[in-house]
């Protein structure tokens, strides 16, 4: 499944009880005009303009450096060569290590305005003095990813807002990565650099490997996610990554009794074997149970793919740079290439 906001714990903190955008603008003016502008890796020349997927055109008289981004978007931009000094969204685990959504970000050096869904410290954000807020949206451009609805007006009134479509029901992973590359270029990234060239070549090779593996060994793959009480069989039509992998020839299971919204079918653990599969593409996000925890579930351990060790991690919230995406695509290609036909 591409995302499921209802499964993420809401933990709002540090939000203003009142004052509205006017008070926050005052805080921004007072506190956000210091000389310690963050270095984004882009030259601070201008003017800067970018048309996002809402579609809205943002314009400044210089290339912005004080960027605040949803963690997954920040990770993608960082991989393209743009430093994003402040983030919101799942950035660190309880032990301080980086979440999967954080990619290669130096999480210990970042300003973090909220680490969980529904959490955004508006006062801290205003005082920091953002120039551009960067995030995603799913289907509805008015619903910005990880921006709490109750404080949305306060947050979006403080800086330019750039939102890219992570899922519109038709776009694919390849296209979404391309849009992140365009955004990174506008911010000063050199897409022809040695590192970016190598990452693109690795990505292209991974895509070719997955295409070849799917054709040579057409096993059945179930995209799934595990929770304490529920096993989710995901709909491959509802994620930009799975739509792309389907185009490449991957044979995903299509659940036949989808929940409202169409993202997945919720199964009790007693019915976790409803959809036979040769390979399990298992949600690897922090909120989902992982294989070590699932050893306590008899119906999980009884699944043929589990017994054969044919379980591969799924970045259910995909990474939108060529380098980061290549890692996930390579893993799926290897899993399919080496899988035994079990069902």
UniProtKB/TrEMBL annotation:
Q: Where in the cell is it found?
A: Cell envelope
This protein's record includes keyword Signal: yes
Q: Which InterPro entries match?
A: ABC_transptr_periplasmic_BD, Bact_iron-sidero_bind
Q: Where is the Fe/B12 periplasmic-binding domain?
A: 65-343
Ranges of biased composition (kind: Polar residues): 46-56
Disordered as annotated region, ranges:
34-56
Instruction: Please give the family membership noted in the entry.
Output: Belongs to the bacterial solute-binding protein 8 family.
Tell me the protein's name: Iron complex transport system substrate-binding protein
**Species whose genome carries this gene:** Glycomyces artemisiae
Which taxonomic lineage is given here? Answer: Bacteria, Bacillati, Actinomycetota, Actinomycetes, Glycomycetales
